[in-house]
């Protein structure tokens, strides 16, 4: 089971700063826009602090992320390395790849060979968990090189898409949920 | 490491390790290009922190209200700088990534052109901004970034990059 901090007074401020943009990138999708959160220094800092408070002092040496806004500040604050996970052909040099299934079609995530060593304790950070496909691919990459994924951490969860269940029991920590009313 | 308009502080002892942490990958993404890979810098916590600290020390007392980061590698550094100096972070992105209303600015590539976008309303008149990217080569991307911010009413105080390729013209 995972936890989210619904008693923490900072969460309300964070949630109200996330802008929902209807029908982007296509009809029917209520897009969770975190750029408005980044325009509020206090709310942005609170977001980072909530993750840092959870992971500092837990011997996490790797923060891996496909979105690059939240991962690097968390890594810096907890003394971990930051490992970007990217779409194909963006990372130079030797990479390992993990394919994953989308609603229609497939996509692929890549990580540098040698970025992470066996035995390292890692968290995976993303802005949002929807179906969980990307997070699963990220965990697969880390586990293939022998790292231990301690937890996945996201700012936003779309619980109706049941991504949490797709994580095969791996803990998930989120700050806010978005439910279509 | 230097910013677009000013010379570096040559004696900062942190710069040597930062330079050494950057990996050069030959012939990526195509033949002839010596790619400056900063991901190896991100793997070294002390060096990554020193990089951010150098920028924070420079900008923290300049009344900067906006840190604009160029997608994607500007995002590795920009948000941490913004958090440390208490500024907003504004992502500048490739077309169709930002939802809602945007303004766009085209810029030239060696062959063809590309486009950078910024949210309408992210920036307002009177904002003082810096632009962050990992590397400056021809300056085309940074020029587009400056133009976007100025169109939004901001004053661009400086551009800041980890790496400057001295064989390109400004």
Automatic annotation (TrEMBL), chain B:
Its EC number is 2.4.2.7. Keywords: Cytoplasm, Glycosyltransferase, Purine salvage, Transferase. Coiled coil: none annotated. It is found in: Cytoplasm. GO terms for biological process: adenine salvage; AMP salvage; purine ribonucleoside salvage. It is an enzyme of class 2 (transferase). The keyword Transferase applies. It catalyses: AMP + diphosphate = 5-phospho-alpha-D-ribose 1-diphosphate + adenine. Residues 45-163 form the Phosphoribosyltransferase domain. One of its GO terms (cellular component) is cytosol. Gene3D superfamilies: 3.40.50.2020. The keyword Cell cycle does not apply. Pathway: Purine metabolism; AMP biosynthesis via salvage pathway; AMP from adenine: step 1/1. Pfam families: Pribosyltran. GO terms for molecular function: adenine phosphoribosyltransferase activity. Belongs to the purine/pyrimidine phosphoribosyltransferase family. Homodimer. This is adenine phosphoribosyltransferase. It comes from Arachis hypogaea.
């Amino acid at each position: 089971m995972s936890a989210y901090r619904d008693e923490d007074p900072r969460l309300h401020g964070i949630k109200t700063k996330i802008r929902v943009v209807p029908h982007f990138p296509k009809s029917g999708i209520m897009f969770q826009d975190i750029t408005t959160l980044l325009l509020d220094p206090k709310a942005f800092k609170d977001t980072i602090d909530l993750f840092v408070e959870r992971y500092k002092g837990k011997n996490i040496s790797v923060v891996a992320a496909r979105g690059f806004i939240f991962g690097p500040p968390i890594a810096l604050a907890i003394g971990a390395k930051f490992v970007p996970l990217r779409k194909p052909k963006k990372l130079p040099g030797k990479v390992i790849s993990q394919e994953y299934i989308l609603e229609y079609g497939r996509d692929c995530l890549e990580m540098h060979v040698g970025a992470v060593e066996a035995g390292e304790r890692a968290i995976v950070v993303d802005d949002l968990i929807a179906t969980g496909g990307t997070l699963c691919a990220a965990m697969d990459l880390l586990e293939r090189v022998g790292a231990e994924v301690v937890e996945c951490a996201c700012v936003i969860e779309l619980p109706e898409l049941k991504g949490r269940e797709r994580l095969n029991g791996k803990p998930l920590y989120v700050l806010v949920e978005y439910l279509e009313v | 490491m230097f910013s677009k308009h000013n010379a570096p502080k040559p004696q900062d002892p942190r710069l040597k390790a930062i330079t050494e942490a950057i990996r050069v990958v030959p012939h990526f993404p195509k033949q002839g290009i010596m790619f400056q890979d900063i991901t190896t810098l991100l793997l070294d916590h002390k060096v990554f922190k020193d990089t951010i600290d150098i920028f924070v020390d420079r900008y923290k007392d300049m009344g900067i209200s906006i840190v604009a980061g160029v997608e994607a590698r500007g995002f590795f550094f920009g948000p941490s700088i913004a958090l440390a100096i208490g500024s907003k972070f504004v992502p500048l992105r490739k077309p169709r990534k930002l939802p809602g209303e945007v303004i766009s600015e085209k810029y030239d590539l060696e062959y063809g052109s590309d486009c950078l976008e910024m949210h309408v309303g992210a920036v307002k008149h009177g904002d003082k901004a810096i632009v962050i990217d990992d590397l400056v080569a021809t300056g085309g991307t940074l020029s587009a970034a400056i133009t976007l911010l100025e169109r939004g009413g901001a004053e661009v105080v400086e551009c800041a990059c980890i790496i400057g390729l001295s064989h390109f013209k400004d």
